[in-house]
Amino acid sequence: MTDRRSGNERxxxxxxxxTVDIEWENHAGRYPGTLSDISERGCFVLAxxxxxxxxxxxxxxxxxxxxxxxxxxEITNHVFEIGFATTFIxxxxxxxxxxxGLIDKLKGNIENP
Length: 113
Hints:
This protein has one helix at residues 93-106, and strands spanning 16-26, 29-38, 42-46, 56-62, 68-79, 83-88. It is mainly beta. A six-stranded antiparallel beta barrel has the order 1-2-3-6-5-4. A hairpin with a 2-residue loop joins β1 and β2 (29-38).
């Protein structure tokens, strides 16, 4: 079996490995999860739950100064009982600035794969 993650990098922006406890929400409710990687365009959420490719979700990322960043996304792929990859959609300029600032703050605790 071929590892689907091997080969040429498909992403256009840098992504970073992280371990951040978050919450995510879909049509069925709001649930806990863990970010395992993040970029300006999307993330991977480790989570169990009922989700499907193409589904719209919201990811709630806690901010160091308090509060949370709510980002809408579309699931691009998922692995049953492991989690899902999402591409952020409809991100406002201010939310993108907040996300960039959050990634910059996390860089001391993350590694570039």
